[in-house]
Design goal:
Distance between the termini of chain B: 48 Å
Shape of chain A: extended
Helix content of chain B: 40-55%
Oligomer: heterodimer
Largest sheet of chain B: 10 strands, mixed
Helix content of chain A: over 70%
Strand order of the largest sheet of chain B: 3-4-5-2-1-6-11-8-12-7
Number of helices of chain B: 15
Mean pLDDT of chain A: 87
Structural class of chain A: mainly alpha
Order of helices and strands of chain B: HHEHEHEEEHEEHHEEEHEHHEHHHHH
Number of strands of chain B: 12
Structural class of chain B: alpha/beta
Strand content of chain A: under 5%
Radius of gyration of chain B: 23 Å
Strand content of chain B: 15-25%
Distance between the termini of chain A: 72 Å
Mean pLDDT of chain B: 85
Low-confidence stretches of chain B: 469-483
Chain lengths: 356, 483
């Protein structure tokens, strides 16, 4: 009988657990629907003061009090949404009002939470309402162990205008994951006036190839001429990844120094560097590059030949003529095949492939 | 002759062994379920973070090649290729392989995408059947089409793998519908700095869903019992079955219909195996072996929010073919890689994943049938009493229902893809219905696969489907030839 008793106990426990799950399931659905209705009603309630404020006929204080009545997570999402659509001066007016609201203070306090998603909430809100007094909190969030928090906190840089914090971000960038680096580069581009000086200093000092590569990519994103000139000076670096990063970054630097550096790099021993140099020569649109790119059509690496042919196709009439001539060559089948393939592509397709 | 007392003893022990097996197996499922909760919670928060999604939508995404094997797909190939080309991803190419189709698949592609032949300029790392031609499109730079002689799905995938130009490859079925942002979501672990060799996403049931322009615009639960039960089955398998494995050393399965892999690793293990009927599982097992043998830290992960939709069998005949083939592939793969079992060199794969798939999946139909027979005979000869038998069945049914209900619950509190009020109730109903008839049916199909394994049968079998109702009345055949 013992096993029957054990089985009976298991069956009863299962039935009870199942009943509980069904109740929870129904409750979760009902709660979700009630919440959706409540949120919709709250959104309508806050819409009016928000609309007046957006067109300049209402006050930020009224928006603040309307937000106070919203569920905190909804208010947070609303303010994040608005922040991307209004002028910084107008947003500043609102954030000054909101910064002392209890729900905002409560959310920011979560920056110390053990749960990363709570820290993420704090970082996202701080990206909109951060004030100089939040610098320490922002610094901690930027150094957070979770990549999503790091990315979100980086957005605070646009509100704080702090060169020290920016230099800190640039220093740590090489250790970050790709997504965070990308997010940080985008933010640093928007504060490029403050970012250019610390970046320039780092490009001019000795650093490991891995760090240099990341900073050169950042220089490319920011597009500051001084930083790109410093990057161009590294085009003979012994590390191939650094040379490839320089060759790629120089497509944003239509300058005689850049063209000279690219002319050297298109005969680099490393095929990745040659391919990037060919692409950049097409992007800077220098017709002086036609003979170099025509020679690169005979490169031993397929990728270099492809990049050279695409660059020629992007150079307009002189480049197209060079491609047509290469398509008739009998002495080099590789150059001819590539010229035929790229020559047959539509202009839009060439641009799409060239950018890929 | 065995006397009655001995027979009773044997039956008693058999019944109790089956009961023990059943409790251990379901407890392991319970463990998977517990492991899946923090994973699901974490991925759900990442999926909800718009800031991160915006970053993922930008230009620094890793390049990705979508590999699409196509055999006799003339009715759908143009539309499905277009849906792959228009996915929200900045750096991807689509490689369609016409695997020696006997219909107008190639002609449809040439006409729709203005294809022109280009020279072969790819390194052939994995040997395949002869590729007759490579084609690029005048309209879409992202499209490459390979026309090759028939060699089966794995061979077609290998040809695409050779031609792929990006560091990551995503193998999909031509009749799979991928959600527009699914690639961005799949790429998330790579971008967040996790060392990952392969990532699998969720596959959901598309039967009865509203589909427009190759996209699921409204998720619905099919009210017919076969697709309905499979909806619950897929939820259970993906929402906690595979998710739980993230914390237990990695699953041995990433769906062939929707899995992202590092191309260099696939080339290192010589691509997809052509001598198996479940090339997806074989690939993941070989990949796990490769990683463990070289002590590489890369993981195979499953993430729940990237979604692909597929059509599941709506008739028992098609279901039989599918389940029999899946199980045959499982048994073959486990047999081929038997070296992994309890081998310390392979760590958690050798001690957890492999034994689970062997004892909990491959041998499960044999043990289950043994249980049914022993219980029946035990009742007949008085080795077990009726009360025990009823309680045993009751516990067995409730275990399955509970796991399914929990999966439905997870779906409800996280992604909630089925919006109608009655949807959870239908799912609950199907969770119950699964235990009565469907489960026994699939056990029978899986049992039959052992016979085919012993005979060395390598055929895929015919897989006739209803089609996604893109064009009413059109039936899509995904019949495959023998490998």
């Amino acid at each position: 009988m013992t096993e029957s008793v054990v089985l009976a106990v298991i069956a009863i426990a299962q039935a009870a657990f199942f009943a509980l799950l069904v109740v929870l399931l129904v409750a979760a659905r009902a709660r979700g629907q009630a919440r959706a209705r409540r949120d919709a009603a709250a959104a309508i309630h806050s819409a009016e003061p928000l609309r007046h404020w957006l067109v300049g006929t209402g006050s930020a204080i009224r928006v603040g009090s309307a937000f106070r009545k919203l569920p905190p997570e909804m208010a947070r999402e609303q303010i994040i949404l608005i922040s991307a659509r209004v002028a910084p001066s107008q947003l500043l007016e609102l954030t000054k009002v909101l910064r002392s609201e209890s729900w905002v203070v409560r959310t920011i306090t979560r920056a110390r939470s053990v749960f990363w998603w709570r820290r993420l909430e704090a970082a996202r809100l701080l990206a909109v309402v951060a004030a100089p007094r939040d610098k320490l909190t922002v610094r901690r969030l930027i150094s957070d162990r979770h990549p999503a928090v790091q990315s979100a906190a980086t957005n605070c840089l646009t509100r704080l205008d702090d060169e020290g914090l920016i230099a800190d971000v640039i220093d740590r960038m090489p250790d970050r994951s790709q997504a965070v680096r990308l997010c940080q580069a985008e933010v640093l581009r928007s504060v490029w006036r403050l970012a250019a000086r610390p970046l320039l200093r780092r490009l001019q000092t000795r650093a490991t190839p891995q760090r240099l590569e990341v900073w050169i990519q950042l220089a490319e994103t920011i597009g500051d001429p001084q930083c790109l000139a410093a990057a161009a000076a590294l085009h003979r670096h012994p590390d191939a990844n650094v040379r490839a990063a320089v060759a790629r970054a120089l497509r944003r630097f239509p300058h005689p120094n850049a063209s000279a550096a690219l002319a050297e790099r298109i005969v680099d021993p490393e095929w990745r560097v040659r391919a990037e140099a060919a692409r950049s020569l097409g992007a800077v649109a220098s017709t002086d590059a036609v003979p170099l790119l025509t020679r690169a059509l005979s490169d031993r690496a397929w990728n270099v030949r492809l990049r050279a042919a695409l660059a020629l196709a992007e150079l307009g009439e002189p480049g197209r003529q060079a491609l047509d001539a290469a398509a008739k060559r009998q002495d080099d089948a590789y150059a001819r095949d590539m010229a035929i393939m790229v020559g047959a592509l539509a202009d839009g397709t060439v641009a799409e492939l060239g950018a890929a | 002759m065995i006397d009655l007392a001995t027979l009773r003893d044997v039956l008693w022990w058999t019944d109790h062994s089956v009961l023990g097996y059943f409790i251990v197996l379901n407890s392991f499922y319970g463990l998977l379920l517990l492991m899946s909760i923090p994973e699901l919670w974490s991925h759900w928060h990442l999926a909800e973070d718009e800031g991160l999604t915006r970053v993922l939508g930008s230009g620094a995404l890793p390049g990705l090649s979508i590999l699409v094997p196509a055999y006799n797909e003339e009715l759908t190939i143009v539309e499905s290729t277009r849906s792959f080309l228009t996915l929200e991803y900045t750096r991807h190419e689509v490689i369609v392989v016409n695997d020696g189709s006997r219909d107008g698949t190639m002609a449809r592609l040439i006409e729709a995408y203005e294809l022109f032949e280009v020279p072969a300029a790819f390194m052939v790392t994995v040997k395949t059947q002869r590729v007759r031609g490579y084609y690029r499109s005048r309209l879409y730079s992202k499209l490459l089409v390979l026309d090759k002689e028939n060699g089966g799905k794995a061979d077609a995938l290998n040809a695409a793998l050779n031609a792929a130009n990006h560091p990551y490859v995503l193998a999909v079925d031509a009749d799979t519908l991928i959600e527009p942002d699914a690639l961005l979501r799949l790429a998330r672990p790579f971008l967040l700095g996790t060392r990952v060799a392969a990532v699998g996403g969720t596959v959901r049931v598309a039967n009865s869903c509203t589909i427009e322009n190759g996209r699921v615009v409204e998720a619905r639960i099919d009210r017919r019992w076969l697709p309905g039960i499979q909806t619950v089955e897929y939820l259970r398998a993906f929402l906690f079955g595979r998710l739980g494995w993230n914390r237990l050393g990695g699953s041995l399965i990433i769906s062939g219909a929707f899995g992202l892999f590092r191309r260099d690793y696939l080339l290192a293990i010589r691509g997809y195996g052509t001598g198996t009927v479940s090339e997806d599982m074989d690939l993941v097992v070989r990949l796990q072996r490769y990683l463990r043998e070289r002590r590489l830290p890369d993981k195979t992960l499953f993430i729940p929010d990237p979604v692909a939709w597929t059509e599941v069998p709506a008739s028992t005949k098609v279901l039989a073919t599918q389940r029999e083939r899946w199980h045959r592939g499982l048994v073959q793969t486990l047999w081929t890689h038997r070296k992994l079992l309890f081998n310390p060199r392979y760590g958690s794969v050798g001690f957890v994943s492999y034994p689970f798939f062997l004892f909990g999946e491959a041998l499960a139909p044999i043990i289950e049938v043994l249980g049914y027979i022993a219980l029946g005979l035990g009742l007949a000869v008085g080795a077990v009493d009726l009360r025990f038998a009823w309680l045993f069945l009751c516990v067995a049914v409730l275990y399955g229902v509970l796991l399914s209900t929990w999966a439905i619950m997870l779906e409800e509190i996280t992604f909630r893809r089925y919006p109608r009020k009655t949807d959870p109730l239908w799912l609950l109903l199907f969770a119950f219905a699964e235990a009565f008839g469907y489960r026994q049916l699939t056990v029978w199909y899986r049992l039959k696969s052992f016979w085919k394994v012993l005979r060395g049968d390598q055929r895929w079998g015919a897989m006739r489907r209803e089609g996604f109702a893109r064009s009413p009345g059109v039936r899509v055949s995904v019949e495959r030839p023998a490998i």
